[in-house]
Every structure is written in structure tokens, then in C-alpha cells.
Design goal:
Strand order of the largest sheet: 3-2-1-4-5-7-6
Bound molecules: S-adenosylmethionine
Radius of gyration: 16 Å
Number of helices: 6
Helix content: 25-40%
Largest sheet: 7 strands, mixed
Order of helices and strands: HEHEHHEEHEHEE
Amino acid sequence: FVTGKRKATEVAHAVWRSIVRKGDTVVDATCGNGNDTFALLKMVADETGRGRVYGMDIQDAAIDSTSSFLKMAVDSQEMELVKLFPICHSRMEEIVPKDSLVRLVAFNLGYLPGGDKTIVTVPKTTELALQAASRIVSSGGLISILVYIGHLGGRDELAIVESFASSLPVDTWVSCKFEMINRPVAPVLVLLHKK
Ligand code: SAM
């Protein structure tokens, strides 16, 4: 179901759709312009109003961009299911309620498209955020990390993500990587599935 997709983000969304159900709680660790937040909202929203999307970004500009996009694209009932925070994703445990069953934590690393390219995700906080995500994701849930390797620092970040992924205990986690091998600088998708 992923092999016909041309873009790594489309592959990621297809994987998310196979895991996420209506009414779930999910986390967007890098809101950016809100495309992933929107896709996640559509996956969890139903008429019961149980679904939740907790979104965060280090930049106020990204939170504003996500918020404006959602206000245009979804109705007020769906909008209430999204909670946006201008914080570093290493602090995600401060905003996701302790009793939540988190089905997915999604990372789309790098810089804000159309924004300040000097503000990028960096290995140190990415690693802390992955540790936090591994603590909050529920059994059967997924951590999805899209890593852009075409920009400066991208391969260092991939190294940290892979190091974290390979350190997870094999009895509770399945760690895998999706690469488009005929597109050498295409983003790499790392998937961490908690048993
Ligand atoms: N998911 C977004 C979308 O659908 O439009 C794209 C995300 S963009 C590639 C990466 C985002 O990560 C940028 O908006 C950037 O500000 C954000 N970011 C960088 N460092 C961060 C951090 N420590 N915590 C949270 N977000 C961060």
C-alpha cells in the first residue's frame, strides 16, 4: 500500500492511516505549516468528539500557520479537538494528559517550509523528544519520524534517530526504516512500533 506513493510524506500518512482510528489521541511533534496536523485530525475526528491531536512547534510562526490553516480547513467542532503549544517537543509530556492512550507520535524533522531555515530540529532535542515519545506512546502505537537528509545537519540527525531506534529493546519494539533507494536524498522514514 505504500509502494505507489511518490513522496515520503504520503508514505508516512498511509502508514499512520493503517494504525490510527477515530477517537484516538495522537501527537504532532513538529506542526510546521499544519499539513500533518490536518491529516491527523481527519484520522481521529468523529461525531463523538473523543479524538485529540496535541501539536507543538518551537516557533510561534509555525503555530500561527497551523492554526490559520486549520481554521480555514475544518469546522469549529473539529478545531476543538486540536491543542497547539509553542514549545520544544522534548517537553511533550507536559502537555499530553497523563491518562491518554497515545496511538501515534509523528515527527517531521527539519525546518519550516517558507520560514526561517536557520531554525531546525537538532539532534540533542530530537533525541530527548524521542525518549519522551517512547514513554507516552501506548502499546500497539507508533512513533513515526521523517528525516530530511538533503540539508546541512540532516545526516547527523538521521544518525541520532537510527541510534535511538536500534537501542530499543527487541521484546517491546519493532524499529524499521523506509528509504527510496532510487532517490538517494529523499527523506527517510523511521517507524518505531511498540508491541
Ligand atoms: N509537519 C509540518 C507540516 O506538515 O507542515 C512540517 C514540519 S517542518 C519540516 C519542521 C518543524 O519543526 C519546523 O516548523 C520547526 O520550527 C519545528 N521545530 C524545530 N525544532 C523543534 C523543536 N525542538 N520542537 C518542536 N518543533 C521544532
